[in-house]
Amino acid sequence: MDKIKRNERLSAIARMLADAPNRIHTLGEFCELFDAAKSTVSEDIDLVAEAFRRFDLGTLETVAGAAGGARFRPTVSRERAVQALAALAKRLEEPGRMLPGGFLYTSDVTSEPDTAQLIGEILAQQYYDRQPDLVLTMETKGIPIALMTARALGVPLVIARRDSRAYEGSAVKINYVGGGDRIETMALARRAVHPGQRALIIDDFMKGGGTLQGMVDMMREFQAEVAGVGVMIATRAPEQKLVEGARSLLILEKFDRERGAAVVRPADAYAL
Amino acid sequence: MDKIKRNERLSAIARMLADAPNRIHTLGEFCELFDAAKSTVSEDIDLVAEAFRRFDLGTLETVAGAAGGARFRPTVSRERAVQALAALAKRLEEPGRMLPGGFLYTSDVTSEPDTAQLIGEILAQQYYDRQPDLVLTMETKGIPIALMTARALGVPLVIARRDSRAYEGSAVKINYVGGGDRIETMALARRAVHPGQRALIIDDFMKGGGTLQGMVDMMREFQAEVAGVGVMIATRAPEQKLVEGARSLLILEKFDRERGAAVVRPADAYAL
């Protein structure tokens, strides 16, 4: 095999680290792949890290110690987040998105892989330090965002169901307060979560907060901890949510019935 | 601003192209970002492409013409696909995954972002030439794989629901033959698909093929074309599926009731 040049190593390192977010790659892996010395690979990683920093492409860190190596985390600068969320708010204000019952049509937006990924990365970066073991969501609309949050955190996604289906095996079922104060059922496969795990709860939309509180209660049933609760968009009213401490990227202020459109703005943390 | 060195440009180009699969980035974008000449950026792209090829990290192509530029496609070599699917088959043969009704517990595997991404990329690469406009799946378990297929193809995901929910707006509803020959209902928001679009239908599991055929019928209702039908795993029996031409990565041969485990093997195209 020809000698592998720095140019090739940098391209490969950038691609491999960025494609496995929040996982540690040992220097040894790269040394073997490139047939290069540790000091060489270490310099390569510094160069990639510097390029990522310069162009706002995420954070590449060196982790010391026996299990050490390099770790990439998708991070979105405040500037980029502010810009992206302003654009997203604008899209959600398009006429025709108002639905009966105070809901907003967002499925087209949240199911775009790049949008879901961006939202997932903005949500994820608030929780790296809490080191969640998994991301929990409730079917269906929140799944794309939750999966991309899990991807950024390098952890599995766990999906609670509206009903326990045959193909999930034995399940824990709980009741929770859904929209319009109706009592709803949520089910989660017994094997999906282990005692002591830390769950980050993610959903697309929060109105009363009942579904999110249901997921918090579900984690209690599994003796798991809640590392945080994050949503893409929360309604302004009711101010008092059933779940505590949820963070939202966007606020649905109200529906402007004359314009037939929602009024949406970025949450304070992302205001211009 | 300091002059941007080739090292930095390569790291940034590798990251930016790989993070937006199957989208064309014009040379002009990079020229502006790096304050560099087209010939320089063009050489950079060739170097990144060569590194990706050498280390089996995907395909970076130059697209000629007015709308030309560089396009990255996640591609998985046969060697890597064979290895990955053999490992996946082995995991699905673990005892305890057998569920009543001939189902297999796969949610833990398909909801791992890296596994979902790998499966999505292996599925996607069979359909790049069909140029689908969207990926269609039916809630819930297939969503992670379908989202990652859509990500690789650079197109939106569309999710059919078991029921039309208030928050999706007006919907098309059809009946289809579900498991155990039961008649089930599938709903899809009217605005989700436009006439003439090409849909790639993706799901995690195929037994009779009724759900997949339901999605084919749904696309007919929308006057959309079907660009293909792909699943992660299909049962050997019944040989005759309700849907035609579906491709599967894995075959669930049978349940070994003595071992209490499934017998799973890669499909012929991925056999050792």
From the structure above, extract its key features.
homodimer; six-stranded mixed sheet; three-stranded antiparallel sheet; 34% helix; globular; transcription regulation (chains A, B); DNA binding (chains A, B); DNA-binding (chains A, B); PuR_N (chains A, B); WH-like_DNA-bd_sf (chains A, B)
Care to describe what's here?
Two copies of one chain form a homodimer. With 272 residues, chain A is an alpha/beta fold. Chain A contains eight helices and 13 strands. Chain A has helices at 6-18, 27-34, 38-54, 78-92, 107-110, 113-124, 143-153, 210-221, and strands at residues 24-25, 59-63, 69-73, 98-99, 103-104, 134-138, 157-160, 171-177, 183-189, 198-206, 225-235, 247-256, 261-266. In chain A, the strands form four sheets. In chain A, strands 7-6-10-11-12-13 form a six-stranded mixed beta sheet, with helices on both faces. The radius of gyration of chain A is 21 Å and the shape is globular. The interface between A and B is large, with 62 and 63 residues. Chains A, B: Pfam families: Pribosyltran, PuR_N. Chains A, B: Homodimer. Chains A, B: GO terms for molecular function: DNA binding. Chains A, B: Keywords: DNA-binding, Transcription, Transcription regulation.
Q: Radius of gyration of chain A, Cα only, in angstroms? A: 21 Å
Low-pLDDT runs of 5+ residues of chain A are none
Q: Count the helices of chain A. How many?
A: 8
How would the global form of chain A be characterised? Answer: globular
Based on DSSP secondary structure assignment, what is the total number of beta strands of chain A?
13
